[in-house]
Amino acid sequence: MSLTAFRLRLVAVALGTAFVTFPPHPLASQDPQQPRPVFRTGANVVRVDVTVTTRKGEPATTLTREDFELTEDGSPQVIDSFQFVRSDGTPTDDRSLDIRSREHAAAEAARDDVRLFLIFWDEYHIGQFMPALRGREVLTDFVRTAFGPTDLVGIMDQLTTLDSIRFTREPLRALARDRGERRPLRLEGAQNLLWLGGVVLAVALLDAPWREAAMVGLAALSWWRTPRALRAANGFTTYPIVEVAVLFFGIFLTMVPALELLRTRGGELGVRAPWQFFWAAGSLSSFLDNAPTYLTFLALGQGLRLPDEVVGVTHAVLAAISVGAVFMGANTYIGNAPNFMVKSIAEETGVRMPSFFGYMLYSGLILLPLFAVVTFVFFRPP
Question: What is the model's pLDDT at position 20?
């Protein structure tokens, strides 16, 4: 396949005059004899790119300026300059071919001898698994053989926004260097596994406020002992955790009245069967944190004077409260702090995430039927 392109550039000088008038100054209106100022423009330069082929469809490369005639509204225009541009992906100088930044790519794309290609990967119609694998193999072979060293290539799909398209080029020598310079897989910063284990032990063995103090101390120790280069390589920032902390601080403040009202008047809801506890605790846990929701409905169950099989309630009621409070936290972004944390991290790295209600629609279509199955299998009414 040949991707060679030839263009003839004509720069024409269009001689024209434009008149720009301005209204008179308010003070000048008192003098009817004062003329209005008139400003005349200069000449305009128009660039025209044309492609000329022979009868056989081959580029015409021997044309000169005298072979062209340029007119505007029937009036002949002067061809000020004439340039033959050949774009076939071959370097015309010794400039750097490796793209170092987005600005460098934009500067290279503005050159006359650089071609720009955008590949659209129609994933919705290519199919999954084997068709997609074969398509990637064909596309890889095409990219390696069809483009020249100076060509800039980008790829996009249906979800790619225009401002996120990146054009680059990678010579074959760079690909060979990638295959030749291989380093063994290794884990750096493994000491953080010790600090993480300490956090787990603190949660399991310590009480407040020593538990919280131990977790803060271990986090500070991890920050101090981990090289800054590792955090930079992982793209680590504090933005996601700060965003989650602020959001859930507001949730915890506003959920206190709702939970207190549930504790005092919850008995009037008529929640007594395990399946009712499952859906009631799960519905509230979808928008509040699961821990206080679990404790609230456990207190509600204990106030019903049910058979004391475990912690003042039956096994079935305790299981229903636990499963509902934990499982249904996946219904929304704010049902569990990790949900929102993952969303924040993904968006910071440029991954598009569904909106709040878009995620609820997506999760509801999948999870609600599963929760209905869980109800009939484990908490079916007598």
Answer: 43
